[in-house]
Specification:
This protein is of the alpha+beta class. The chain contains 9 helices and 15 strands. The radius of gyration is 33 Å and the shape is elongated.
């Protein structure tokens, strides 16, 4: 992440802002863009890192003074700024800085009721998300449904409680990185100053903790394979391509790390009667010549049952009649779409002798009444 042009602009404060004003601005921005509140949003994650890095400079009197004097260049490697080496200030650093400022493992547990997503410790990494497809009928889409999904996933090891250590023992903090999972090294470059680099701690492999006696059930990973049945509430109106995140329904993180999410991808099954177009549904209704000519009421299929449709006299084949509110409920909105009924005048493919007589008689009566040929768009030329 490249250093910004102005840390004050990043936090939205003036250059004469007091420490309390700077902290309040950071708190508002950090809580708005925190990964716990924006799971999977990379833009929010980058913004969270940016505002935290800016706060790390402006909240420290010495760093702020150096920044006010030299600008962003004063925060380059060797100047004590958070953007050491370009990408060194990563999300782990930002989260640790945030928790150091406001305390607690998961600041959103009380504020947003999210709870449990914060890192169990500085080196514990989050488990991977799991994606599954959920196939739904059109009736389930229209009504909303609760589904049970069996998920194969990594779960916390029951033997060691997820620590990875032999039952009865506990991991110890890594003495080399002091639990951070990263080590910083400095190298003097003479007149160019001192350069810093950050790398994964080789002693603890970035976990921040050491295990002297490994758990035999999970081989010190803290997780084992398992299967769970998870219930998912599907709201009415979803469509293929929509997804439902289930918090902490993914793989458990190694060595006590928080679980990833279960992402349920919606897939709508083809329907035998209806074709969906947005919130509307379309069906074709064959009717007799008599019904098309004289009109009348017919019973037609509808989502969740039957409905009565009035066909006006003189309805032509291809006419589309609309039944308002008989379609798919609007997702997170009010009302429903419509059911569109395309009328198709049915003609017998093998008419009986009696039908032939009647059709010939109908043809004689229609002589001189048929409209002339015209373009499909209705223009006569």
């Amino acid at each position: 992440m490249a250093a910004p042009h102005d840390y004050y602009e990043v936090l939205g404060v003036g250059r004469d802002a007091s420490p309390d004003q700077i902290k309040k601005a950071y708190r508002d921005l950090a809580f708005r863009h925190h990964p716990d509140k924006n799971p999977g949003n990379r833009d929010a994650e980058e913004r969270f890192k940016e505002v935290t890095a800016a706060y790390e400079v402006l909240s420290d009197p010495d760093r702020r003074s150096k920044y006010d004097q030299f600008g962003a260049q004063g925060m380059e490697p060797g100047a004590g700024g958070p953007w050491q080496g370009g990408e060194a200030f990563d999300l782990n650093d930002a989260l640790r800085a945030f928790m150091h400022t406001f305390g607690g493992e998961s600041p959103f547990e009380d504020l947003f009721g999210l709870g449990g997503r914060g890192r169990a410790r500085s080196g514990a990494s989050r488990g991977n998300d799991i994606r599954v497809r959920l196939r739904l009928t059109l009736e389930e889409v229209a009504a909303g449904v609760r589904k049970k999904i069996k998920v194969q996933r990594l779960v916390r090891c029951e033997a060691c409680g997820g620590s990875g250590a032999k039952p009865g023992t506990k991991p110890t903090e890594c003495s080399d990185c002091r639990g951070r999972g990263q080590v910083r090294t400095q190298r003097s470059m003479g007149m160019l100053g001192t350069f810093q680099s950050i790398s994964t701690c080789p002693k603890c492999s970035g976990t921040g903790q050491l295990i002297k006696e490994r758990c035999g059930a999970c081989d010190a990973l803290g997780v084992t394979r398992g299967a769970e049945v998870i219930e998912v509430d599907v709201p009415a109106g979803v469509a293929t391509g929509n997804y439902i995140p289930v918090r902490a329904g993914g793989n458990a993180g190694p060595r006590g790390g928080p679980a990833g999410d279960l992402v349920v991808l919606i897939e709508e099954l083809p329907h035998g009667v209806f074709e969906r177009h947005g919130d509307d549904i379309i069906t074709e209704l064959p009717v007799s010549v008599e019904m098309a000519a004289l009109g009348g009421a017919v019973e037609i299929p509808a989502l969740g049952g039957k409905a009565r449709l009035s066909i006006p006299a003189g309805t032509q084949s291809g006419t589309v009649l609309r039944m308002r509110g008989k379609g798919i409920p609007r997702l997170h909105g009010r009302g429903s779409g419509d059911e569109l009924v395309r009328i198709v005048v049915w003609v017998p493919s093998r008419p009986s002798s009696e039908e032939k007589k009647l059709l010939k008689r109908l043809g004689e009566l229609a002589k001189g009444k048929l409209p002339p040929a015209r373009r499909p768009d209705g223009h006569s030329g």
